[in-house]
Backbone:
């Protein structure tokens, strides 16, 4: 099989195509022929080895796992002994978490892992993008912010994969949503249902006082210190980007006061991710959720996908297609 592999940290060009023996599923495992996999911020950090704390997860001196990619969608083409949840030919999607490995034509996943059936109405590309953005945004809003109907929510970085998902999910949870993005993506974000859209090149959202119950910094471009006065009493600042400051602020935030929250959603237990995947698949099937796609690239052009992610200006998800050329339409 063909994989996108790397042996050292560096720019997108360190990732290249390599041949590997086709893996065989063991007891309780399924093998997925991967039709789509996202290239996200975690993959960029894992490839570059920056910021420095990324190496705590990916390897201190060199990458521990040569094949990146967590979010995937594809078709089961082999099953191991004892597998009962899936059969050969099933359309599936999910996330491998810290194990990575989805930037490959074939992927081994535990039947008990974060993998569920993919409805026929949802395309492979969309499914991978759902994992890329919404599987992060949903627990942040639901479990981190304890979002309730009527809450005033601001999403910073609203055109990215996580931010775009947060806008849609916050609206579905009954929030009043203000979305912050660059001028090129204002119309996209409006189309996702935001009540108000702020062009960050023209307006500083942190200038508002006591304006929001939740500020979700989906791109880690601001800080709790800068945003604190924009939060109402008892408000919550969420960020996807870890730092010593935010982890200390999370510990020292007092109940009932403005608080800071950092979550490591990719490290959640697989059993917790499964119902979220099923819920998100149902929303996508009904048309209540749609993940924006910035670009689809074939496996041979995966370095180009990494460059788009590194630019920090993508709208939605970047998806690599290890097998086939699945578009936004469903594949069988």
Residues:
């Amino acid at each position: 099989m063909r994989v996108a592999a790397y042996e050292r940290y560096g720019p997108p060009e360190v990732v290249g195509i390599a041949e590997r023996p086709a893996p065989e599923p063991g007891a309780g495992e399924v093998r997925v022929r991967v039709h789509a996999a996202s290239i996200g911020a975690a993959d960029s950090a894992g490839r570059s080895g920056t910021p420095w704390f990324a190496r705590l997860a990916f390897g201190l001196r060199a990458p521990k796992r040569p094949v990146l990619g967590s979010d995937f969608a594809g078709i089961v083409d082999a099953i191991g002994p004892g597998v009962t949840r899936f059969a050969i030919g099933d359309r599936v999607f999910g996330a491998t978490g810290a194990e990575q490995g989805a930037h490959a034509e074939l992927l081994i996943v535990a039947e008990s892992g974060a993998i569920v059936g993919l409805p026929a109405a949802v395309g492979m590309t969309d499914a991978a993008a759902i994992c890329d953005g919404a599987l992060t945004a949903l627990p942040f809003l639901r479990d981190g912010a304890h979002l309730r109907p009527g809450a005033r929510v601001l999403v910073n970085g609203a055109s990215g994969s996580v931010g775009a998902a947060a806008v849609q999910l916050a609206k579905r949870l009954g929030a009043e949503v203000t979305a912050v993005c660059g001028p090129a993506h204002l119309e996209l974000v409006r189309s996702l249902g935001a009540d108000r859209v702020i062009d960050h090149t023209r307006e500083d959202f942190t200038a508002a006082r006591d304006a929001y119950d939740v500020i979700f910094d989906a791109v880690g471009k601001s800080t709790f210190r800068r945003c604190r006065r924009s939060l109402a009493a008892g408000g919550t600042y969420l960020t996807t980007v870890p730092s010593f400051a935010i982890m200390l602020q999370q510990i020292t935030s007092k109940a009932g006061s403005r608080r800071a929250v950092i979550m490591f959603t990719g490290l959640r237990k697989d059993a917790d991710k499964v119902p979220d995947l099923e819920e998100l698949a149902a929303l996508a099937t009904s048309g209540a959720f749609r993940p924006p796609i910035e670009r689809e690239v074939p496996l041979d052009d995966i370095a180009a996908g990494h460059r788009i992610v590194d630019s920090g200006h993508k709208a939605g998800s970047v998806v690599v297609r290890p097998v086939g050329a699945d578009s936004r339409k469903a594949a069988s």
The domain at 2-130+269-321 is CATH 3.90.180.10 (Quinone Oxidoreductase; Chain A, domain 1).
